[in-house]
Amino acid sequence: MQTSTQLSRLFYRMADDGLKRASGSCTRCQRPTTRRCTGCLGAPVYDDCVPKPAFYCSQVCQKVDWDQHKLECRKLQARKALDRAARLLQAIIYRIRLHASPIQFKSVRIEDSNIFLNGFQFDVSDTQPQLKPFPVCLDGNRSLFEAV
After folding, report:
1. Are residues 124 and 65 in the same domain?
2. Domain boundary among 25, 41, 76
3. b/e map of 18-49 (b: 16 or more CB within 10 Å)?
4. Residue 127 lies in a domain
5. How many domains does the chain have?
6. Would you state the pLDDT for residue 139?
7. Greater confidence, 73 or 113?
8. Three-class SS string for 89-129?
9. Any idea what DSSP says for residue 18?
10. Which one is predicted more confidently, 31 or 137?
């Protein structure tokens, strides 16, 4: 169980950026405020159900409301953690692909929703395909790299 001091440190922070500076009504007493629960702030939305932001005018209101908010907040914290893990894995996979690609080609072009690999080479007789560095013909275009 978390102590109220831990809750204060984890969730009751003044916001510095625009996303956190949104205004609303205190979840408990309905007073106008700009302070949001930072524990669940910025959680990605995976479905049509967008979570209602939790605003608090004071630590007292937040502590009193914690039993009501805790379940939703923890779900949203889990979403944030999963999103960070997915982004990290994606970055790792891109880095591996950059240095160890199973495909080789000379250039890329996109027409409508189709990606064409020009000069694509695939040796059917090769039973042990060699991984080679990713062809660096994409001119730093990350979205094209991701598509390929």
Report:
1. no
2. 76
3. eebeeebebbbeeeebebbbbbbbebeeeeee
4. yes
5. 2
6. 60
7. 73
8. HHHHHHHHHHHCECCECCEEEEECCEEEEECCECCCCCCCC
9. T
10. 31
pLDDT in tens, 23-41: 899 999 999 999 999 898 8
Q: What pLDDT score does 124 carry?
A: 60
Residues 68 and 125 both lie in one domain: no
Look-up of token digits 């922070």: 13
Dist CA 148 CA 144 (whole Å)? 6
| Residues 120, 90, 51: CA angle, nearest 5 degrees | 135
Q: Which residues span the domain enclosing 126?
A: 100-147
One domain, residues 17 and 66: yes
What's the gap between Cα 143 and its chain centre? 17
- Chain center to CA of 110: 27
Give dist(CA 110, CA 36) in Å, integer: 43
Q: Hey, what are 69's tokens?
A: 């908010």
Between 12 and 57, the more confident residue is 57
96-121 tens-digit pLDDT: 877 777 777 777 777 888 888 777 76
